[in-house]
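Consider the tokenized backbone below.
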């Protein structure tokens, strides 16, 4: 059972929430999107494992929900280690911006999304180093390649509908 802190729009903790249950109308959970960028200006995307219950084999960035008592940067570092086996240093992360989503298309997201970026130029071996089996493969992609995935409908919905990658990231 995964437990999250529940926040108000001022980012104050107002309680806890169990993953999988409906979020209250005035309660938000904290989510991180983690973009690794290499010296060539490419971004690391991950393809979800075929066994994932939602969006199998779709592409996304590293990310996930912040656990109870955890900070956003701690979650960014943890999620990256779990999903792709890369050990990041919190002090090297840059919080690019925060987005808040409420209800869209009759689905209540109610999340506060912190978008982190880390410069990273090392090797990535998901099979040997990841601590979960969430990711089938990783690929470094230029912005144009990410745009093509979006055009083909191969991005996970939660990042496909966030235009921030193309509008606010360099």
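A designed sequence for it:
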């Amino acid at each position: 059972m995964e437990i999250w802190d529940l926040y108000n729009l001022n980012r104050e903790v107002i309680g806890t929430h169990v993953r999988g249950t409906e979020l209250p109308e005035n309660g938000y959970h904290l989510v991180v999107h983690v973009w690794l960028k290499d010296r060539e200006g490419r971004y690391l995307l991950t393809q979800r494992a075929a066994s994932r219950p939602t969006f199998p084999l779709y592409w996304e960035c590293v990310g996930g929900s912040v656990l109870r008592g955890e900070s956003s940067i701690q979650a960014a570092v943890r999620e990256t280690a779990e999903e792709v086996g890369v050990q990041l240093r919190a002090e090297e992360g840059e919080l690019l911006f925060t987005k808040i989503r409420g209800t869209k298309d009759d689905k209540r997201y109610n999340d506060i999304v912190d978008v982190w970026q880390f410069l990273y130029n090392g090797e990535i071996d998901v099979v040997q180093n990841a601590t979960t089996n969430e990711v089938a493969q990783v690929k470094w992609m230029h912005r144009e390649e990410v745009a093509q995935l979006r055009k083909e409908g191969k991005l996970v919905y939660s990042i496909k509908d966030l235009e921030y990658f193309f509008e606010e990231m360099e």
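Strands lie at 3-7, 13-18, 29-37, 43-48, 59-60, 62-65, 94-104, 107-119, 135-141.
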